[in-house]
Amino acid sequence: MCHIPTLMITAMKRLFAFIFLVLFLQSVSAQSVCRVTAECRNWGDTLLVFVTECGSGREMADTVLMKHDRFSYDVKLNSPAIMNVTTPVSLERRGEYWAERFVILPGESLHFKSYSEMEGTRFFRQYAQARRFVRSSAYRDSEDKYAAILDYVKQNRDDEACVTLITDYVTSFVMDERKLQEAFDLLSPEVRNGRMRPLFDWMLHAVQTKQSRGKSQPTLVGQPAKDFKLTDIHGAELQLSSFRGSYVLLDFWGSWCMPCLKGLSGLKEFYERNKGRMVVIGISCHDHEERWRKAVQENHLPWHNVFAPKNCKVTEDYLVNAFPTLVLISPDGRILRYANTPDSDIYAFIQHLLDGNRPKESTP
């Protein structure tokens, strides 16, 4: 009889150990491995990988070695994740420019070649198709990029990759919660309520956070624009006050800033339509002069381009705390409007002014 309690205790210990093992295995099995392989020429021999899991907010950072211009990386995921891959050299660009950025999924393999060249599961084939659309003339030549996105989503409402198209566009260009939800609602119920939902919720939260910060961000609308002198790309001195009598649009940007680079095409289209009717000045901030010059040349930027050195206070004078930031100045030198994203709204506002019409609104 004296041995019964000991046997019971031993049995209970084994039972608890078994239950713990089952629970542990269940938690592990919930995570699925995503394997990413890539062919990346001229990226050096070491890459930095940053992964953010949308469902949990879990962040992972790692280093991978390149071999014969290729790398392979495995990561365990419970939900869609955003993967950024960069080289150590690009960290000099203040950590805000990523060599490549894409969405990955639990249990699915991706072979990455370029922005619109992907191989793997059905999702990644859809993903590549959506990215090819962004590079196509149907999108690039469209005056209303958002409408083009909506048309694509309507035609492919059962494609999970449309969620990446919607979130990439809204978070890169307009940061508009209403537009994000409107485009998402066009998708089929299966996609809206499926495994891509955590990605949408994650991006929706980012947009809401950005908008709430923007509401409290101070601006100088209505006040005189502070004059400045900066050196342009040809080595000549450029002074803001020399353009008095014209509408002036200041574009605070940097070669390290991916949203800035993505927004250049829209600004170029607007500039070409209104060449000679207004002045555009691109102000490169927190940049390396050599990289700035290369970015201006590679992107064929036709407007005035100036470089703000480290000791320059032009960003402080204009309360710039995000990039890109657009600042519109009136012919009499007053600040009319701010925009933190190069969306079509500010261009429509300026177009009304240039055409002699009264804009619907004059506040940021």
From TrEMBL:
<dbReference type="InterPro" id="IPR013766">
    <property type="entry name" value="Thioredoxin_domain"/>
</dbReference>
<dbReference type="GO" id="GO:0017004">
    <property type="term" value="P:cytochrome complex assembly"/>
</dbReference>
<protein>
    <submittedName>
        <fullName>Peroxiredoxin</fullName>
    </submittedName>
</protein>
<keyword id="KW-0201">Cytochrome c-type biogenesis</keyword>
<dbReference type="InterPro" id="IPR050553">
    <property type="entry name" value="Thioredoxin_ResA/DsbE_sf"/>
</dbReference>
<keyword id="KW-1015">Disulfide bond</keyword>
<keyword id="KW-0676">Redox-active center</keyword>
<dbReference type="Pfam" id="PF00578">
    <property type="entry name" value="AhpC-TSA"/>
</dbReference>
<dbReference type="GO" id="GO:0030313">
    <property type="term" value="C:cell envelope"/>
</dbReference>
<dbReference type="InterPro" id="IPR036249">
    <property type="entry name" value="Thioredoxin-like_sf"/>
</dbReference>
<dbReference type="InterPro" id="IPR000866">
    <property type="entry name" value="AhpC/TSA"/>
</dbReference>
<feature type="domain" description="Thioredoxin">
    <location>
        <begin position="219"/>
        <end position="355"/>
    </location>
</feature>
